[in-house]
## 1
Amino acid sequence: MNDLKIPNTDVDGQKLALESIMRGLKPDPVEPMSEWADEYRVLNQTYAAESGRWRTSRTPYLREIMDAFSPSNRCEFVTIMKGAQLGFTEALTNMIGYIVHRAPAPVMMVQPTQNLAKRYSKQRLATMINDMPVLKGLVADPRARDSGNTTTAKAFDGGVMFIAGANSAADLRSVPVRYLLLDEVDAYPYDVDNEGDPIELAVNRTKTFARRKVLIGSTPTVKDVSRVEREYLKADQRKYHVPCPHCGEMDELSWPNIKWDKDKTTGQHLPESAFYSCPHCAGVIDESFKTDMLAKGVWVATKPENNTRDKRRSYHISSLYSPWESWASMVQKFVDAQADPHLLKTFINTALGECWDEEANRVDMHDLQKTAEDYSLRTIPRGGLIACAGVDVQDNRLEAVVFAYGKGETSWVVDYEVFFGDPAGKELWAELDEYLQKELSHESGSKVKISAAAIDTGGHHTQKVYDFCRLRKHRHVIAIKGQSSRNRPVIGRPTNQDISMRGKTIKGGVQLWPVGTDTAKGVIYGRFGIESSQLGSVHFSKDLPDEFYAQITSEKLITRYHKGHAIQDWVKPSHRRNEVLDCTVYSLAAAYHLGMNKFSERDWERLEDIVQPITEDLFANEPENGEIIVKSKDQNRKKTAKTVAKKHKIKRKEPLQPRRKRKTKNFATNF
Ligand SMILES: [Zn+2]
């Protein structure tokens, strides 16, 4: 083992891996992994569900999965979408043991975080190596100085294993590996250190190997966002079919066939009465049949057309098959979860191994589209009082969405525009400038200008955005940047960006406003559920294209758990575009920049007076004796209305008129 040293501090993974490849150039063993595990694997009593010798017959559904990962099998990608209590972690550990013993090559195991990686290494790997004489002799002794055996990297005869955290890009791109084991992928960050998807980063490490193996396993999380579901759907989607002890029909075990009784008098659920009802013969299958049924089970591909060359297999299995989880206890969990959506989600994910469709936060584009109203773009329906734009900057275009806002922050989409061109040049910005100054028509006949606009600096053209905003500060055109940290206000305190040659802040220079994007998205998505007649609702014009709805509903709020705490993140499925949603966030930020979130009832009324004075009573607005009679209170109102109008750039077609109550007396006078 003397030639297997890796320094504890700076692991030169590349060199190590190359050395091990040279050493490991042996023909692959033909022995399937399940046979190896039955012969050699020992389970430690501290960490395994059952200690002693590993027996594949205990969890027969793992046989094919382990064998698919054996080097003698041609399959390259093996995906397992699974419930809890199925012995999967031990199967993964078997794979590493087999590689060390029989098929040495560089191998990497990835856990969701570096801490979890260390824990896995200490609890599972170190104990396996320690408990198994055939492995102990092959792996460097951790007690020796500079042994090449640390928690995160272990050299062995002919290879090296790395135990990485998906939250560290440095971990993931360090070494080329032939075997890659990705555990609990749905708990991985969506973007690691701004370098992209950790799965992609890790899989890139395997490209130099012609006979690579990639295993992707996880309990799924949220539908459409779940990575393991995505990988599962790409492949042949195998289900474990077991025979009915009564009629012999082969089928998968599925939750709706689990039945249980209720107490006839109290109506209470009786989980201990749980049984499986055969969908073919209606026979009652008691839990005691499970072991025998599992032993006779076979994996059946439901989408063989996705795997014609047998390179990509995927497996789904629920805890209904678990030798350690009874059907009765699953029913108990299900009954307990009825009152609490969080528990129900956990049940669906961890017991059934299925994705949770975040119903409560689900915004369906078609549902939104159905609410579209009969008003044209660039017109503001009654109720909309100020207009604010959000602008997203892409490498070949600018996208702008304009919203009108009214009482209770009720909002109307009044325009959506895409400007193609090069943001590095001048023309595109001139076009945007003109657009932002164009007046919008109000249903009342007034003309309304855009009061504020927020432009994203997050792309590759930050300086251009600063330059554009610097000259248009007086028009409330502001430069903004989305905050990645959670629970920030929709718009925060700005920072000065213009610095003099002496390094001092230039007063009156351009400022950058931070935007709490997750907070804003929460506000926006929450409002999609509000009925159109209510304050706070969001209204859509019938003129908006399908794409608008697809983009504004592109993200989902998903809940993840970290040390027992629920963390919610907005997540966009990788294939979807979301510029419209970003623009919507920026428009809201622009409105908050004007203080909309602090507007009082009276502020809104003043705006109403200017933009949409009460005109239903035509006669009331007729001047008496050729002059407008204004009471002193209204005179005040007129004055403030003018100030607000100036501030928000609202121009009326007609001269400003005060709001007046209907006076029956006037009828007589005017006739
Ligand atoms: Zn049957």
## 2
Amino acid sequence: MSEDAISLFDIDTLKNPYPAYRTLRDTQPVYFEEALNIHVVTRYDLVREGIRDTETYSSRYDQFLAGSQMVVFQQASPEVQQQLMAIADQMVETPPTMLTLDEPDHTKYRSLVNQLFTVSRIKSAEVAVQAIIDECIATMSPGPVEFMSVVGFPIPLRIIGDRLGIPLDRREFFDKAATQAASALRLTPLTGEALLDRTQTAVDLQRFLIDLVDARRANPEDDMITILANSKLEDEDRLLTHGECISVLNQFLVAGHETTSSAFGWGMLLLCQNPQLQDELRGDAKLIKTFVEEVLRLEAPVQGLPRLVTKDTVLGDYSLKAGDMIMLRYGAANRDERQFEAPDELDIHRKKAGAQLAFGAGVHFCIGAPLARQELNLGFASLLNAGRNFRLGETDSAPEAEASFILRNLPRLDIVYDAI
Ligand code: HEM
């Protein structure tokens, strides 16, 4: 691939960015992507530098995300725009918390939310997580299966729904709303009707979450929303406002399920493409652990996230100015041969597979990583115990990633397998 030809926004490149990443790492490890007016960082050491130096590279990129949504908004007709504004007027304002904040404000929310993901909490939820996995896998039977609709999407969605404490009779609404919230990150054009539906659902979701927060304040239960609703910010000795609660919960909804679904899908595809691994992995929790890290390394569900440059600086030998946006491309860093030997290969014996950056690193390291790892480790162990000879189904088209710039997903995956 020639240097000049590269645009990460090209449809084929969105579906398979890895050849472009390789060229970029070698020739322009920081590269200006005109389509988004952003400088994309692809080399492992530089991505790490961008993550670590939080003074120079700020997480206050909420304006950038809002700007991207504005592009989608502007593509709608004037009538639809008017209706959208009327719906959006009902939105509760949500301040940034965690993902798009810097220290020290970031720390005050992060330390409150940390208690939801302690080792002991994750451990004690194991039985419940396993039960959901078993139920979903029980809906499959040997033969042809569309893996994403029976396992890949439902497992993480049901687990986050349970952990948050979403009442069972509102699950259908919750599933739709959470899926739509994540779809906003795709930055893809929508019909006016779909855009209106998504915006109305976002308003309904806010209302629903506020009611739930109030209900858990009045009658606490054993779930995440209860803890969030009733914990105080340490320094300010106060409960979170409704807006703050929604902001945190939105991050769980967006970050918390499509990412894990994505890893289920890519993991299953990699098992089908490397059939010799299936017997070796079956029953070996330690190898499955490395396998999961390799899946995350090879197919990072979050391919990249932005940072705002706060002062004139140099990254590698590339000059950046205060106000520039950069994008840390975790998906490219994870295949950097300067960091990982034979980076395009799945190696279930790889030493330091955990050095992959799919969960980011540093102060913003994914707070849900222990939960995601638990789901994936238990999930693949159970899948391998439920069947053998997982292989691709005979359909007209090969499995294809969705053309998305931030999330990397397989919308469908047709497989076939045999009874154990
Ligand atoms: C395989 C699954 C997942 C992947 C690949 C993933 C990826 C990431 C990445 C790359 C970041 C770092 C953001 C940055 O650099 O600015 C992050 C942060 C975050 N993730 Fe995840 N995530 C996953 C699962 C989850 C789950 C299950 C939850 C919650 C239920 C979650 C909640 C969050 C939150 C709240 C943050 C913000 C943390 C902060 O800024 O301090 N994620 N995630």
